[in-house]
Every structure is written in structure tokens, then in C-alpha cells.
Amino acid sequence: MTNSKQESRDLFPGALEMMILESLRRQPAHGYALVQHIQQRSNNLLQVEEGSLYPALQRLLKEKLVKAEWGISATNRRVRIYQITAAGMKHLEREKSSFEQMFEGIALVLNPGKAIS
Amino acid sequence: MSWFRRIFSGIFWRRRNLYDDLAAEMREHIEEKTEQFVREGMSREEAAHAARRSFGNAALIEQRGREVWQWPRLESIWADVKYALRQLRKSPGFAITAVLTLALGIGANTAVFSVMNAVLLRFLAVADPQQLVYLHYDNQPWGTSQSGYGDTSLPLPVFEQLRTQHQVFSELMAFAPLSGQKIAVRFGEEPEEALGEMVSGNFFSGLGVKPFMGRGITEADEKDHTPIAVLNYSWWTSRFASDPSVVGKTLYVKGVPLTIVGIAEKGFQGADPERAMNFWIPLQNRPELTPWGNSATEHTLYGSPEWYCLLLLGRLQPGVTWQQAVAQLEPTYLRAAYAGVKHPDRKEKQPHLYFSAVRGIEDVREDYAQPLHLLMGMVVLVLVIACSNVAMLLLGRNSARQREFGVRMALGAGRATLFRQLLTEGLLLVGMGAGLGWIFAVLATRSLVAWSGILFPVALDRNVLLFTLAISALAALVFGLAPLRSATGVPVAMTMKTAAATANTDRSRFTGRRLLLTCQVSLCLILLVAAGLLFQTLRNLQASNLGMRADGLLVFGIEPQKDVQTDAEAVRFHTALLERLRALPGVESATAMSNRLGSGWSNNTAVTVDGKNPSPTKQFAPVRWNAVAPEYLHVLGIPLLVGRDITQGDTSASRKVVVVNQTFVDEYLPHTNPLGHQIELDGEASSTGQTHFTIVGVARNSSFRKIREKPWPVAYAPFTQTSGNLQMEYALRTHGDPMALLPEVRGVMRDIDPNLPLERPETQRAQFEESISTERLVANLSIFFGLLAALLVAVGLYGTLSYRINRRTAEIGIRMALGANRRQILWMVVRESMVVGVAGLGLGLPFAFLLGRALRSLLYGLSATDPRTFVLALMCIGVITLAASVIPAHRAADVDPQRALRSE
Question: How many Cα atoms are found within 13 Å in the side-chain-facing hemisphere of B765?
Fold first, then answer.
């Protein structure tokens, strides 16, 4: 596991939850798979700390945005599989659009020349 | 409750499941990761290691995952508390000692300071008490007379003149008790005793006391002297069971029917700060109800302008200072003070007026101030010892847990967690100590009030409790947390690796403890010396020679009512009653007197012998005298030295006679035969017009006002030949138990007058015991504090020694392995204790001597450096240091060198 460690920065609050929900929207998964998935999708740009994953999952569970069930994984292992709920979907949409707005705003400020397009 | 439990346990059951799931899935995660590493080519062991490392602190993550579900802080606090309780349960000896020590320290302090505050600092329970002042005077004009406590009573003209000075006082109130003690009252059939006061019409309104029910006393009531009474709320609750229908009914006071018109505001106890009054009546102008219960043949309130009998209480106008007020009042006061004086002596010192704040207990304050300050000092020392003990206990315990902290930090506990845990443990101890201390304080305050005979309610002082609590909490926390610094400052690996043998080579810390212990021992010595001196004083007082046969005497007061008003009627009444009492089976002899012995009361006046002042160096020659019935000396067992006793033959018609005591003769009639000389008692001019008493006998000195008094010139005059003896104190010499005679005496009284109660019946011995109640209280409490201190010091010493033995087990093992024998090890521990003891004695002795000197005025029959007391205190310290070291020494000697060395 030699990862070319980019200059790592903290995610903003809610980013991890958003990525978890997005991953789960595509496909239910257990914790380990989620870590793998996020890492791959981000071309290893994002390292999800397992330490923050589980508390984040607990928060989502508590707010009923995801639900969890014990099942058997592809590697034939007893795992706890998370699934996004309807409320989770709605929450994800809201978060994504607000995130996109924010991103757009930040981009405008950082690159004023390209703003017109 | 069952549904509540179901929901409650439901929540926890769900939680439990959640937590289990979390732990399980994290375990699975790590395993999956391990497997992947294996697949990537690591060895199984390496992979497991790497997986765990990259996962991070599993315990912490799990904890954070759980916290998501928890009521944010509450549950983690609860968890801390549970953990702390578990820790304390593991060392119950430590926990119980710490809690008890704290409780005793907090409880004793709160109780003593509550009483102290009440006595010294309490304001009256009235509106704006800081505006109120008591009026006092000095230099009472010659030719006036006075009833009351010291310099507090002023005559009616002064009251009437000063109350018009509205630029100074918004209100000036007057009051006077109906007697120095309780008086006879009757509501319904049975006569009983109660405390009552006559008050001016503005008394209630001026103090800002509203009636709880009915009405108070008004200016009109004062002017018309209406026969009404207002009851104290607490008397109404206790005696009349809060029955509202008593308003409008009749209360007989000394046989005078008074209509109850109201109940005073709850909590108001009267303006006499020393005693709570049961009822109040308007100022009266009838012979039965006079201030201080004086006989109307001597003085009446409205007929005797020279009689200093009214206590005055003024409410100052806002902004008027005491100096301004006194300056403005002075001319009016001077005029009024001489209003009743027929032949004013212009050369005498001018009377002056002065104020004192309405705070605390005027008179009691002087009597109790010194002993109370002493007790306060003692209790503070006890608190210091208690706090330092708890501090040492905590310090010892927590520094012995260095290793536990190391392990916990290695497992991922942060400094904050450890801090929180130690804090919780400390607070838990203090909390339990405070809870128990509160109970102690309530009980101790109650017994303190009962013991000291304080006649007003004392509430537990919350501020004091909070203060002592804060101090002990501070001590517990500072010392409880101190080890944290060293625990978290040291690298974890070091704590884990260091062996007990080397871990505590830190001698400086132990030196600090030893110093603290030395100070404790010296404080303990001071307390023990004080306790010893005061206890010895009490013993001396109890054993002191009263100069009479005080055992086997029944005493009680009788005050005839209405139909007995003149001196002649009083003499007839009491002579007849004595006759009937003498005839009772079980009564050997009987007599009576105007002042009960040991009650603190006496008649005081100036005496002349053969027309001259027998003490020319002084302005006048003082004498205490008592009006007595026949056979006085014989009944009381006071030895007659020369001449004869007062007899039946000394009637109002016969020549006036008097018996004096030894001191009288020594001071006023030295080197002559005292018999036949004539004396005159100032202010005692009887109806016969004859003013000279002829000395017919000399009695041995005996205690008069109290056990503890200086020898004083005393004269005994027949009550038949002096005036104003309505109320008399009886003394019956009995065959058996004096108190067993009471029913028969009551029977006789019922025959004579059903309105008459026996006033304060008790044995003469008990009456004298009462006169040393303060001394007894102080002695008992100081013994208690002394022993408490000794116990605390012993516990502290024991704790420190055994803690040290534990830390030195390995060292002792080595010593033994190198050939030290049992006795040497024993001696090593005992010596350590003895060193502390001897150092403490050295430090404490000078202070103990100083304290002894400071206590001198409280001591009786022994010197401030009483060798017996000092030796006893020293021996006590010796015993403590020895006893505290016995168990640790044996434990040290029982160390098995093999085990001690191997245990590392």
C-alpha cells in the first residue's frame, strides 16, 4: 500500500456523508467496500479514514438516511450491508445541489476570467 | 412504573444491540483488510498488524461511534460516575475513610459556624434591621434604680421624650419582659409557664412586623393599656395546634384575663434577642403586670420615673449617623434621665447615651463570644486536618495508580479522559462527604443548640455549608488531580517498564507528606491541650465546694396572683405555704428566698456599715443580698460561723436583723466582732420606716449566683422585713429523691390556687449545673474536637505509612535478603512514625503554651501550663503515633523477601 500521498486536506463537514450516500445510491455496500469504492472512484485522491467512516455511518443510521442489515458479502463473509433510504435519497439531492452551488461560487471567485461562460 | 421501566430498558436494550453490531462490523472490517494484505503478499502476522495500524484506535473509534447515539454528555458522565464508583468500591477502606473524614470536617464546621453566626451576627427577623439600634447608657444617675440586663434599660420619661425626636428616629419602640423568667399563664384549665413582653404601640409597626392573623398592638392599645395579647406564630403552632379560633379567646396572664387579638408574623420572635417570646401585650399600668415582674409596691412603670426598666429600640431616619443621632438626642436625654431624681448629685459623672447595632444576641454575645471564638478556632483546625488528610489519601492513592494510568493511556485514553475520571472520583468523594456532612451538621446544630441552652431557633447556615464544601472540594480536587501531571508527563513506556522498587525513589514527595503530617500532629497537640485544660476546668467546677449541701434539695418558684399584692399579704401567703409544705411527708425542712441560688440573679446594691461607707477607697461598698425565709442557713446546709440563723421570730414587727457572710466581715468589718453592727442596704427602705439591719449572724461563704464566682460580700435579710417579695423561690430539703416529691407539692398548690404553676421545678444541684452550661458545652465540644483530631491524625499517619510500605516492598525484600531481621524492619517503620510524632510535638508545644495563656480567663482551678494536661496530651500523641504504625510495621516485617523480589 504505497500511496502517493498528495497534500492531504480535511474534508469539509458533510462531505464524507455525501460520498457515502452517493456510493450507496449506486449500490448497497458494507463498510470495507465503501472505503474501497470511494478510494477507487476518486482515483486514490481521497483517502477515507476508517476512523471517521464508522462514526459517520452511525450518524447516518441515527438520522435514518441509511439502514443496515447483516448479510453475506461477495467474499463470503458476514458483513453489515448499508442501504440508502428514501429520506437518504432526498437528503443526498439537497446536499448535492447545495454543494454544486457552493463549488460554482468558489470557482467564480478563484477564476474570475472564466466566469462568463 | 412498569411502563417506565419497559421504555427505559427498551432504550438500553436497543443501544446494547447497536453497540454490539458496531463492534462486530469493525472486527470484520479489520479482518477483511488483513486478508487483503495477505493476498498482497504479507505474512499473516504482519498483515494483522498493518490492518490494525491503518484502521487506527479501534476502541476510540468505537467510542465515537457510540457517542453518536448518546445524549451528548450525560451518558458519558454517567459512565464516568459508574466507573468512579467501581474504582472506589475496589478500595472501600480508602473510600469510607475519605468520605467520613470529609463529612466530619464539613458537618462540625457547619454546625459550629451556624450557631456562631446566629449568636454573633444574626439580625432580627424584621424589616430593614440595619436601621435599628438598641439604646444604652453609661453612668446611671445616683438615686435611680434599674432592672434588666446591664446598661440596656431606660426609664419611661426617657422613652417618652426621645420618641418625639422625629428628626432622629422614625420610630422609637419600647419593650420590657413581664419577668426575668417565664411567668404563669393559663388557657383553659391547666396553669403553665410562658415568656411574655409588654411593648409600646408602635412596636409591631415600627419593626415592620405584620400580623399573620387578627391584628397587632396599636398606639391606642398603649394609651388605653387594653387587656389584649398577640401570640408568637411558633407558640401558636406548637401550643395551640394552629387553631384559628383562639383569636378572641382569653389568655390569663398572672391571673389577668387578656383577649387574644392576633398572631404575629411567622418567624418573628420578639426584640429580646436572647429569648423567643411567646406573646406580647401593650404597656400596662396595673400592679400585676409590671416590667420585669417587679412588685408594684416598689416600682410601677408609670409611677416610678426613676426606674430604669424599658428596653428601647430605635429606627433611625435614613441618612442619620450614630454620632449625629447621639449628639442631637443628648440634651433631651439628660433632662429626661434626671426627671425622677429627687436630689441629683451634680458632681457625678454625666450620663451618656450610646447605640449598639441590632445584630446578634446582645447579652449572650458577651457571655459566649470568647468560648465561641475558641470553638471556631478549634473547628477550623479540625477542618484543616480533615482536608489535609483527604488530600494525602488521594495523593497517595493516585500516585500509586501511576501504572494504571500508564496502561490506560497506552490503550488510547487521552489526558482529558484521565482528567475527567479523576475529577469524577474526587467530586464523587466530596459529594458523598457533603451529603453525610449535611446530616451530621443538622444533628450537631440541634444538639449544640440544646446543650448551650440557646432559647431561639438556629437554622443551618447554608453559606457556611457551601463555604466548607468549597474548601474541601478544592482540597480534594487539587490533590486528587496532582498525580495526573506526573502520570501524563512521563512517557507511557517508562511508567509501564519501571518497577515498583525504583518508581518511587522520589524522596522529595515523601518529605512533603512528612511535613504535612508533622503539622497535623502539632495541630492535634494544640487541640488536645485545649481540650484537656477545658475538661479539667469543668471537672474542677463540678467538684468545687459550693459551701452548702446542694444535694437533696428541691427548688421551685411561686408567684401568688391578684389577691396577693401588698407586702403584708405576700408574707402571709408565703408563711402559710411554707407551713403546709413543711408538713408534707418526705419534707425534712423548707425555706424560701427572693433569688434562687445558681440562677445568676441577685439583688445588688450599696451598703453602709454603722452609717458609713465601709470601703472608703471606692465610691460605694457593693453587696449582694437575698431576702430569705426562716431557717434559711439550716435548710440549705450553709454552716453558721457565729450568732444565729434567720428565725420565725424575725417578723415585720420585730427589730430588723441580717446575717452576713465571711467575705462581708473580712472586707467591711475586719478585726472586730461583727455581731451587733448595723448596716443599711441602699434602696431598701421598708414600710416599717426602720432602715437599719442589725447583724445577728455570720455564715460561711457559699455560692450564690453561680458555681464560678469570686467571693463577694453577701447579706441575708428576712423576707418579712424587706419589701417586694411577691415571687419567692422555695427550697425543700427532702428525705429521698427531691423530684419524686413534685406531685405532692403540686397537690398542695392546687388546693391553694389552681392558677399557680410551680415555676421551673428542679433540684438545686441541677440549677447549679445549669450555671456552668457554657463551660460544659465548651469542654465537651473541645474534647470531641480533640479526639476527632487525634483520630484523623492517626488515620492520616496510618494511611501514609502503609502506602509507603507498599511502595517499599521490594526495598524491604532486599534489606531482608541482605540480612535485616524482623525487629529491625519493625523498628524502621515505627521510627518513621515516631520521628513525625516528635517533630510535631516540637513544633506544637510552643503554640500549645501560647494557647493555654490565651485561654487563661476560661480556666478554673488550674494554671494555663497545667503539667498534668500537657503530659496527658503528649502521651496521647505518643499513643497515636505508635498505634498508627503497628499494623504497617507488622505488614512490613511479614514481607516475604522471595516474593517481594520476584513480584517485579
Answer: 11
